[in-house]
Amino acid sequence: MSDNPYSDLPERAFWRPSISARNPLSLVDLYEKKFELTQSDRIVTAGSCFAQHIARKLKASGFTFCDYEPAPPQLPAHLHGAFNYGVYSARYCNIYTVRQLLQTFDRAYGHFTPQEPAWSKDGGVVDPFRPALEPEPFKDVDELEVARESHLKSVRDVFEKSDLFVFTMGLTEGWVSRGDGAVFPLCPGTAAGSFDPDAYQFVNFTYPEIHADLMAFIERLRGVNPGVRLLLTVSPVPLVATMSGDHVLSATSYSKSVLRAVAGQVSKELDFVDYFPSYEIIAAAPMRGMFFEPNMREVNPAGVDYVMSHFFRQHAPQAGAPAPAPASETPSAAERSDVEIVCEEMMLDTGR
To answer: Per residue in 15-34, pLDDT tens?
Structure first.
């Protein structure tokens, strides 16, 4: 056989030896790092629900995960999650779309002030951009604004004081204000507020829009933190519900495909942006759905461990830090409760 461009490719470039001939739990070379990551690099996270798993595993493995909006000492540890402390590097809750991320930056630096300051709930008010922040609403807008001002200062610290910004892309679908284009993490009227079709509009962001938003965010981020690098991932968690008119399965495929394409393109364009294939490791056909809970949506603890084992092969955790459990092990009830995540999107599930 004559030589051809495929002759000298590594095994990882061919499906049969790298996938078909292997047990799915023994796949190798799924991820090759673009840059080094040291134990002293300050790491921050943001994004959709799956990003919470990444944050916890990095922290447990000895990396420098930074929390710029920590819980007050008087708040019991078992309540931290309910108040969104320690979930991400600041209490911005889940950031599902890239447009929401871009607007989070612009709000933090005073470039964008939404027309809608608060949503009503149970006799009080909540932040439209963090509607599930705490179990109880703020008593009034003044109290909310004080909390928001403190929060946005912490967000600026996230952007300015990090060495690696990890962002998990979750959704293409969202709801925006018809008045000023503000993007909300949830449809108004679900967690709080009330829905008015004249005030709010459903959007399903396209590849060009998401690519432009992500590039704009990166430009702004590097403007305040020139040396920061980014690690992009795509959440493998399917949509809870869709307003696209398509079946939720097709809508999920569209959403994840577009996000994956954008992440891949941006990581090829910029040498300081890397892509980590958490989506593929969980959701690709060779995995046979084994890493999903019975509802075929939530990722089980073994799946999280398997994802991070591929990350740690390239970015070795600190010596002496607890190693991720093998994917074949079944976690105890206590271990399972430790990996529960905060996911506002679940409020869209009507239970039908």
So the answer is: 999 999 999 999 999 999 99
Q: Does residue 319 carry a pLDDT above 80?
A: no
Provide DSSP, 53-91.
HHHHHHHHTT-EE--SSPPPTTS-GGGTGGGT-SSSSSS
Q: Name the token pair of 128.
A: 């439209």
Query: Do 148 and 116 meet the contact criterion of CB atoms below 8 Å apart?
Result: no
Token output for 124: 């009080």
State both tokens at 264.
């891949």
**Sequence letter at residue 296:** M
Closest listed residue to residue 221, CA positions, set 52, 105, 142, 308: 105
Handedness of CA 204, 210, 213, 217 (dihedral sign): positive
What whole-number distance in Å separates Cα of residue 84 and Cα of residue 101? 17
Q: What distance in Å separates the CA atoms of residue 241 and residue 220, rounded to the nearest whole number?
A: 32
Q: How many CB atoms lie within 10 A of CB 326?
A: 11
Identity at 7, one-letter amino acid code: S
CB-based contact 53:303 (threshold 8 Å): no
- Residue 1's pLDDT is what? 53
H or E element that contains 143: helix 141-160
Query: Taking a C-beta distance cutoff of 8 angstroms, is the pair 228, 158 a contact?
Result: no
- Cβ burial 182-204 (10 Å sphere, 16+ → b, else e): bbbbbbbebbbbeeeeeebeebb
Q: Cα separation of 197 and 184, whole Å?
A: 14
Rounded CA separation 161/216 (Å): 19
Cα of first residue to Cα of last residue in the chain, in angstroms, is 59
- The amino acid occupying position 29 is D
* 138 secondary structure, DSSP code: B
> Is pLDDT of 318 > 70?
no
pTM confidence score: 0.90
Q: What is the DSSP string of 327-347?
A: TTPPPPHHHHHHT----GGGG
Phi/psi at 174 (5° precision): -165, 180
With contact defined as beta carbons under 8 Å apart, do 47 and 169 qualify? yes
